[in-house]
Amino acid sequence: PLPPRTLLSISAKQLSAYGGSIETAAGDLDHYRASGYRTLLLCGNAARARNLQRMLFERDIPAALDLACGEMPGAGEVRVCVGALSAGAESPWRC
Which terminus of the chain has a smaller tally of CB atoms within 10 A, N or C? Predict the structure, then answer.
């Protein structure tokens, strides 16, 4: 591995896991969308990403499916990609 060229200090709030509760996640996503947040949801594989997108649409939350994570979401947009993180985070600054 290469050493990092730059280290950044970023203030962020760690989010709790939803434990499989799509209703809780949908409620939070409604808040983030209405507040203009850019929301990126990561799923372990393409099948899970498609299932999550479908479940969000069933709850009237439009979510773009971007399996390759080719673009970051726009303001108020929810984007579902394949990937993984140890925990979610909410950033206090706007892009």
Answer: N
The phi and psi torsions of 20 (rounded to 5 degrees) equal: 80, 5
> In terms of C-beta density within 10 A (0-12 exposed, 13-18 middle, 19 or more buried), how is residue 11 classed?
exposed
Provide the whole-model pTM: 0.81
Strands 78-82 and 64-65, by their bridges, are parallel
Q: pLDDT tens, 49-71? A: 999 999 999 999 999 999 999 99
Residue 48 CB coordination number (10 Å): 13
Place of tokens 């939350």: 61
Mark residue 92 as left, alpha or beta (left: phi above 0; alpha: psi -120 to 50; beta: remaining).
Answer: alpha
Residue 65 contacts residue 73 (beta carbons within 8 Å): no
